[in-house]
Design a protein that fits this description.
By secondary structure, the protein is mostly helical. The protein contains 14 helices and two strands; from the N terminus they run αααββααααααααααα. A two-stranded antiparallel ribbon has the order 1-2. The longest helix has about 40 residues. It comes from Rubus argutus (Southern blackberry). This is Amino acid transporter transmembrane domain-containing protein.
Length: about 375
């Protein structure tokens, strides 16, 4: 089935003509607090806040990585050059602010101004292809160097030198959780499908593909760079890989993933805008029908994301904040809470037990991650003061 047949093609149809309650509010009714509403208004608002915080954090991370790819980044006092810096040298127009501004105006702005998800189907397909190119090159380089004997055996266990390094292990939890938070995109996509029953297979295929990309990237990336692997592995691709055409492959890897993020950006932004609009204007007409509100919300969100990408120190800081709070809530706490509420009376004892376990794990892991961040911050502050 082609992409044109999968989506409703009526160009005059509203954003969610028949099921706006699912799309605009994320998961629940937004017109009026009807007696049959599946969740109270406070629960809905809290869920929307978490989706907004999670998506804002994710998009800030995307723009930070795009900036790292184009203009370079600093890590432990070492500057890792970006693609534009290597090609044209250090100029005012190859600085992070300038490149992100141009990217925002020429690439991201036109895409985020589209009012339907199906308008992004071709860019989304292209982003999948770019992700495959990125993983294939990393895997190929790692395999070639492994065959040639140019790789050492990577360290399999974390290096624990003190209490701070132990607690730092738990800061990876927010990143793992954030990687699989896509719940908020399901309803906007489902409501534009001709056959909504396809959604289950779409979700399964997407999760399988994403998991494969995550595992392959982490495995071959760590195999290739070992202990030198940076928080943003793309920053590692700024030097000699020890194989022919190393510089060319470096550029292909960084450019392909940078373009991939630019094309994924509007999908995440779509649900961000809908949930923020549902939170601020719960009784207004659909945002697709109000151009002033649509473009005002879009401009405000894009401005916030742009500033965040220029002033947040690194992707690690953004991941830690959103992953340990909003992402865990959206991924674990809210789904478990809906199951425990069980307004239709269909949940079994096993379902409720699993839900309680999910909430317990979510709260405990979030608490440990946040505590680890605070502890690590104070330890680094003390070390800096001593030096």
């Amino acid at each position: 089935m082609t992409a044109d047949r999968k989506f409703r093609r009526n160009p005059k149809a509203p954003l969610l003509p028949q099921k706006r309650d699912d799309n605009e509010a994320g998961l629940t009714e937004r017109r009026s607090p009807a007696p049959c509403s599946t969740s109270p208004r406070q629960f809905r608002n809290l869920l929307q806040v978490c989706v907004v915080v999670n998506n804002l954090g994710m998009l800030v991370v995307y723009m930070i990585i795009i900036g790292d790819v184009l203009s370079g980044t600093w890590s432990d006092g070492v500057h890792h050059s970006g693609v534009m810096e290597e090609w044209f040298g250090q100029r005012w127009w190859t600085a992070r602010f300038s490149l992100l501004l141009v990217t925002t105006l020429l690439v991201l702005a036109p895409l985020i101004c589209l009012k339907r998800v199906d308008s992004l189907r071709y860019t989304s397909a292209l982003s999948v292809g770019l992700a495959v190119v990125f993983v294939a090159i990393i895997a190929g380089v790692a395999i070639v160097k492994l065959i040639e004997g140019g790789l050492g055996f990577p360290r399999l266990m974390p290096k624990l030198v003190d209490q701070a390094s132990f607690w730092k292990l738990f800061t990876t939890i927010p990143i793992l959780v954030t990687a699989y938070i896509c719940h908020h995109n399901i309803h906007p996509i489902e409501n534009e499908l001709i056959d909504p029953t396809q959604m289950k297979s779409i979700v399964r295929t997407s999760l399988t593909f994403c998991s494969s990309v995550y595992v392959a990237t982490s495995f071959f990336g760590f195999l290739l760079f070992g202990d030198e692997t940076l928080d943003d592995v793309l920053a590692n691709f700024d030097g000699d890989l020890g194989i022919p055409y190393s510089s060319f492959l470096d550029d292909i890897v960084r450019v392909s993933y940078g373009l991939h993020l630019m094309l994924v950006f509007p999908i995440v932004f779509f649900s961000l805008r809908l949930n923020l609009d549902g939170l601020l204007f719960p009784y207004a007409i659909p945002i697709a029908f109000d151009n002033r509100r649509f473009y005002s919300v879009t401009a405000a969100l894009m401005g916030f994301i742009f500033l965040g990408a220029n002033f947040v120190p690194s992707i690690w800081d953004a991941f830690q904040f959103t992953g340990a709070t909003a992402a865990i809530s959206v991924g674990f706490i809210f789904p478990a809470a809906i199951t425990l509420r069980d307004i239709h009376g269909i949940a079994t004892k096993k379902d409720k037990l699993v839900s309680w376990v999910m909430i317990l794990l979510a709260v405990s892991s979030s608490t440990v991650a946040i505590s680890s961040d605070i502890y690590g911050f104070f330890c680094s502050s003390k070390a800096a003061a001593r030096s």
